[in-house]
Each structure stands twice: as C-alpha cells, then as structure tokens.
C-alpha cells in the first residue's frame, strides 16, 4: 500500500487511466472484429467499407489518446485493409466471372 499522499494519488490516477485505456482498446478491437465478421458473412461492398472506415477512425483515436503506439496503429490498419482489399478483389472477380 502507498504511504505518501502523492503515491496514493498515483494509484488512483493509474487505475482511472487503466480503465479508460481498456475501454478504448476494447472499442477498436470490436470494430475490427465487426469488419472481419462482415467479410466472412459476405456482406456487400458498401457495408464492409463503412465498417472499415469506422474501425480506422477507432484505431486512430486510440493512437491519438496514447492507448497504443502509432506504429501498432499503422500495422493494425494495414492488416485490416489488406483483408478488406482482398475481399473486394474477390467480389470483383466473382462479378466478372458471372458476366
């Protein structure tokens, strides 16, 4: 247990920040999962792109708040959009084979 007044405050502040960071992290992870689920369910192009934009915004917000490092944010966005682009290419390929 902390003894000094400042140490007690640090414990309180750290706990608040931990909970806030956890909330941001959970939020952007869920946004990413929504995109992946939409891709797996074969959702239309517009739906997937809209979800991807929301996920990108959530990741950017987590980076700006200092929850994750900017390089980690860039890596997560890159991996997400790589999956999105592969899905969009497969949709286009399916359309061209049907014609």
What does this structure look like?
By secondary structure, the chain is an all-alpha fold. It has a single domain (5-98), classed as Ribosomal protein S20 (Methane Monooxygenase Hydroxylase, Chain G, domain 1, Up-down Bundle). Helix content is 86%, strand content 0%. The protein is built from three helices and no strands. The protein has helices at 5-40, 45-64, 70-98. The longest helix is centred in the first third of the chain and has 36 residues, at 5-40. The radius of gyration is 19 Å and the shape is rod-shaped. The chain starts with a helix and ends with a helix. The model has no long low-confidence stretch (mean pLDDT 95). It holds the Pfam family Ribosomal_S20p. Belongs to the bacterial ribosomal protein bS20 family.
N-to-C terminal Cα separation, in Å?
71 Å
* Alpha-carbon Rg, integer: 19 Å
Order of helices and strands: HHH
Supply the CATH architecture: Up-down Bundle
What is the overall shape?
rod-shaped
* Portion in beta strands: under 5%
Q: How would you classify the helix and strand content by structural class?
A: mainly alpha
How many helices?
Answer: 3
| Overall strand count | 0
CATH superfamily: Ribosomal protein S20
Keywords: Ribonucleoprotein, Ribosomal protein, RNA-binding, rRNA-binding
InterPro entries: Ribosomal_bS20, Ribosomal_bS20_sf
GO molecular function: small ribosomal subunit rRNA binding; structural constituent of ribosome
Protein name: Small ribosomal subunit protein bS20
């Amino acid at each position: 247990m902390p003894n000094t007044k400042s140490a007690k405050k640090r414990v309180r502040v750290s706990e608040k920040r931990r909970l806030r960071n956890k909330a941001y992290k959970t939020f952007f992870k869920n946004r990413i999962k929504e995109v992946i689920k939409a891709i797996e369910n074969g959702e239309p192009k517009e739906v997937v792109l809209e979800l991807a934009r929301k996920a990108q915004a959530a990741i950017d917000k987590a980076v700006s708040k200092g929850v994750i490092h900017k390089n980690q944010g860039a890596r997560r966005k890159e991996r997400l959009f790589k999956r999105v682009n592969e899905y969009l290419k497969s949709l286009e390929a399916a359309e061209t084979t049907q014609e």
